[in-house]
Amino acid sequence: MEPLAIAHIGILVADVETARRNWAKALGASFSQIVRYRSTAWSGIADPVPHANDLRQTIYVGVNPSIEIQEFVANGSHSPSRGEGGHHLSFPPVSDNNERRRELATLGIGMAGGANHEGRWIIQFSDPQKLNNVSTEWVEESEGHLDLKDDGSPIDRLPDGSATIFDAETTRTFGAHRPQSDIVEFGVLVADLGKAIETWSAVTGYAFDAAGNGGRSAVTRGMVPAVRLVEAQGNFAREGLYCAVVETKSIDETIERLRSAKVPFVDESGVKVSVDPAYLNGFSLQFVSANI
Q1: How far apart are CA 262 and CA 267, in angstroms?
Q2: What is the distance in angstroms between the CA of the first residue and the CA of the last residue of the chain?
Q3: Where is this region: Disordered (predicted)?
Q4: Which fold, 8-174?
């Protein structure tokens, strides 16, 4: 696989409205309106017969990478059995998603769910069982993608005719260029670091370097954002995506912003500020100084 930068991380939640409010407060920036990604031919491991699927979601205004919050559906790739928290890593669109499907199959990785349009797999999520409870999302550009407002009506159009999921105020503020998210790293908890490095390298094309401080972790080489694989110690809830590291210009200002918004956090001696995972659906944001 060729190494691709992460386009966004996916968070799975039981209540997208509450999650949208909490995440916006924690990040200090807005999310899109709640929209629906609709497919008439969705299928996967749990239900291989093509069927209609509505996926409610909201998108963070920040990019490179962004954050996508998606709500549980009845079964399959986004079912409650996955639990709340980190769900997937998504990459920029590929030219041939059918070929990517075949490539992953040679590695023994099937698809937990995806949408087919006129014989093309235009979106697909890999089986999380094969990658430490993390799905990878692969997208092919297509007219078959259908985003709708939460009430089922078409999403808005900009003056140039392009579609947008963001409200008018957000669009006026940022124009055609959404702001950088300043997310520099994602953390993934794994049971066996050596095995995880081998699988993640095969799936993503990333090279990993072991931590030099004696800790049982490894981080991608030369990729922004980075992926850090961390071997779990003792009893732990589950493998998977558990945190994102966000650079901030001022730790003190971040602390004041979180306190004013009543976001629960832990201040680690003014070096790092971690938002309580219970506030963010089992996921943590860790703010660090951009000057370190």
Answers
A1: 14
A2: 33
A3: 76-97
A4: 2,3-Dihydroxybiphenyl 1,2-Dioxygenase; domain 1 (3.10.180)
